Amino acid sequence: MFSIPLEKAHISGRQENLAMKLEKTDILSAEEIAEEDIVERIFEAVIDQQLPPGTKLSESALCEAFGVGRMRIRRSLLLLASREVIELHANKGAYVASPSVKQAREVFEARLALEPTIARLAVQRATPEGIATLKEHLEMEFAAHRTNQRRDAIRLSGQFHTLMAQLAGNAVMLRMTKELVTRSSLIIGIFGAPGVTNCRDDDHAAIVDAFLSRDDKLAETIMREHLHHIEKHLDLEVQSKRSVDLVGLFRHPKNR
Ligand SMILES: [Zn+2]
User: Fold this and answer.
1) 57 C-alpha to ligand 1 centroid (Å)
2) Both 182 and 130 in a single domain?
3) 120 alpha carbon – ligand 1 mean position (Å)
4) Domain containing 110 — which CATH number?
């Protein structure tokens, strides 16, 4: 589902952003790039909790905010819907997705079934280079947390999990993990407390230590506890409904 391999994604921050969050093709026309940009801005606003679940995305407000025509906004909304970031309702328009508590729990149930095994296999199969990459990635996560880059922290901690699946060397598991991590990022963005990200650095550090000591069972155990911890800290019951000024939110180019 992601076209940019993780190894390459480390090189470019912007590509890494897109690769982690959204499916995209390698070659885009100028018009499509503009749509990707709109898609990215809306996705980020959802992850940053500026657009709460259930917020109506009015086409006319988005046209005004991004300074583009209705067709381009519609295509952007279709892309977002295909990635389950928003929902389209016939005759009513587009709304920010509101994953149900049941859907959120299903995602974590699936992750618990899959990722502890991935952690075990990854320790058994990782090359020294692979372990070095994992350590480097952990440093990037620490840096994002130190500087309170919540969005980056969510993205990087998700990538830690897909990196594990890469190290396990199972393409089917990697694909499943990517899908689950993308869904989790949305769920965590929506249901996580504003100051809190999904993954504890400490847990990831403990998993890296298990790689260094080549303790596959330990990695499996820590991963299981880690996923339980993430799920437990989501506030699945609270979904705020407030009105959002879309034009004010998107009119100005973002500063990154
Ligand atoms: Zn994690």
Assistant:
1) 31
2) yes
3) 15
4) 1.20.120.530
pLDDT at 29: 57
What is the 161 CA–ligand 1 centroid distance (Å)? 6
Split at pLDDT 50, 70, 90, the class of 99 is confident
Does any domain span residue 80? yes
Domain that holds residue 113: 101-232
Q: Tell me how far the alpha carbon of residue 244 lies from the centroid of ligand 1, in angstroms.
A: 31
Residue type (1 letter), 59 = E
Long-range contacts for 85-90 (Cβ within 8 Å, ≥24 apart)? 85/42, 85/43, 85/46, 85/186, 86/42, 86/57
Lowest average pLDDT, out of 40-44, 113-117, 194-198, goes to 194-198
Q: Are 94 and 107 found together in one domain?
A: no
Residues 94 and 122 in one domain: no
Residue 253 has pLDDT above 70, yes or no: no
Q: How far is the CA of 249 from the centre of ligand 1 (A)?
A: 30
Do 130 and 35 share a structural domain? Answer: no
Distance separating alpha carbons of residues 104 and 192, to the nearest angstrom: 12
Residue 75 has pLDDT above 90, yes or no: yes
* Centre of ligand 1 from the C-alpha of residue 190, in Å: 17
